[in-house]
């Protein structure tokens, strides 16, 4: 693995944050800071047949594993490359059949255990931070997280104990699952669709900021870290752990719940974007603060319910429309909770192939997104990309090209000009000439 960019950074003790990563030279906007191959990774079940299990390449002519007939590969080389990890699932999938259903986290942890058994040296993924150094925060876990952890351990034993001899004891597994939950990454495509889960130790070294100066994107199973702000020598390198759409209180709540710290970044201390994110309608009789807070609480509950029940999209369609109407009586269309519900409604329209409906929601979302998110945001690029492809599908050529060009301007910085996603979008634009 070429250590491109790694010599421009160093591990250090960050004040009030513990260990972190800082620059030892200047990085320009769009420059690759470093790349990190996954220590271990797993393709999500929903993408089987569409992406190669080994390299995550998206193509239509994949061939399946002859034994389990569930894993797909580009060629024999990819199949051989994946076999050390796939073999522990292949036999189990054949044995369990339709009852094979471990969670993605359980599958990832099983692969990490196998990797640790055959790898004793520092890997190319651990140039600055070893996986075993990951924080677990076991002392901060509440009873709900502990129960989830125990359920994962039980599932690991159920699905893998016959195929992995001498699993670590429960104490070691408890720590490993906690480490993965705090330090794992979701690999996503250019439209932010979930492709899989992975651990990237060197990437996990970076601390969080709600105004990050780098962004993490993926080239297959390699994480690439690029500057989205000018970074000078001596400055700490910050990633964002969460969706930055929401106001300070929500972001801090999410960070505390998932990562066990209270964010004190400049964005959180100044709350500079909160007013715009929480815009309410200008009514003759303005809503009372309690009424607004009640609607915020309601919106948060709805968001959580939809997150858990998103596979019932056809049932949720009418619910989302009524919820939009209820929230719209108080919240402006630029309010982040309204935007979230419109995004959900857009997803339902796409699922139901209501292209005009999806386009209508996308048009309402994209401009407020551009205001609320940082300049080089994957969320904004993804929305322009979806909207551009919808326009082209609906034969709105000029609007489609404009939207794709706006997506491309962000992607060339976030993904790099040589990324295959960038090349795909360029081809889509050229095809319209």
UniProtKB/TrEMBL annotation:
Protein keywords: Chromatin regulator, Cytoplasm, Metal-binding, Methyltransferase, Nucleus, S-adenosyl-L-methionine, Transcription, Transcription regulation, Transferase, Zinc, Zinc-finger
Catalysed conversion reaction: L-lysyl(4)-[histone H3] + 3 S-adenosyl-L-methionine = N(6),N(6),N(6)-trimethyl-L-lysyl(4)-[histone H3] + 3 S-adenosyl-L-homocysteine + 3 H(+); L-lysyl-[protein] + S-adenosyl-L-methionine = N(6)-methyl-L-lysyl-[protein] + S-adenosyl-L-homocysteine + H(+)
Subcellular localization, as worded in the UniProt entry: Cytoplasm, Cytosol; Nucleus
InterPro entries (alphabetical): H3K4_H4K5_MeTrfase (IPR050869), SET_dom (IPR001214), SET_dom_sf (IPR046341), TPR-like_helical_dom_sf (IPR011990), Znf_MYND (IPR002893)
Residue ranges of domain SET in the record: 7-242
Domain MYND-type: 52-90
Name used for this protein in its record: [histone H3]-lysine(4) N-trimethyltransferase
Origin species: Gambusia affinis (Western mosquitofish)
